[in-house]
Amino acid sequence: MERIELADFLRRRRALLRPEDVGAPSGGRRRTPGLRRFEVAELAGMSPDYYARLEQGRGPQPSAELLGALARALRLTRDERDHLLRLAGHHAPPLLGGDEHVGRGLLRMLDGLRDLPALIATDFNVVLAQNAMADALLGEQTRFRGLARSCTYRWFTDPAIRARHPADDHAHESRAQVDDLRASLALRPADPAARELVRALRADSTEFAELWDRHDVAVRRSDCKRIRHPEIGLVELDFDVLATARQDQRLVVLTPAPGSAAVSRLELLAVLGRERFAPSGG
To answer: pTM score, two decimals?
Structure first.
């Protein structure tokens, strides 16, 4: 771990960013260029004190996962992300398989969707970033570890996830997730993480195993979702997906039909802010 080089790299990358680059209001004139330390820490979901120690060349070695969150917060390119990992004493991920680094363009699109719930996920349904409205509607989706990082895995193994959707929608949601996962696996069948996800789901969920054995396949480009929220009640939203050229990452946007009850409910949600869902497995 090259602490001094790491600290210098973080400071210089932070100085290049403006609040509007990350979808935040400028807040008036600033004495120094760039984001403030606490703003970077907030974007990365980490302690401001811990981030400050990194910029000062102190503190323990950050995990690769934490560095990935920092790379997204600082809007680093893939090359800059790999450099950050190496400075911190980690290996850059191989080019094969799914790369979880989110590019600047996709993050800018996410930042621009302030009034609608939106998130960025991998093709295996691992949420990499989400905006404030998605946070308020769905709860924090990036906090999970291991197999539970995949929303598909949690759908088939965690009853608390299903409780947020009407029972009448469960069968459709299960089929849609399995068919989409089959399509994603076909694009990179040798990916060990993907194969492990399928193996675990077949072992842990009879429902998944039965649906998987049907060998149905369909990319999920759009759909309708009904979500139970403890404050605003049942909200029905259109679900649209924009995939990257490599098709390994997706921008998912949830929108209400014009004139529907969901419009006013999302407006109320924006006022209420983040929903603290009870912890579930993962």
So the answer is: 0.68
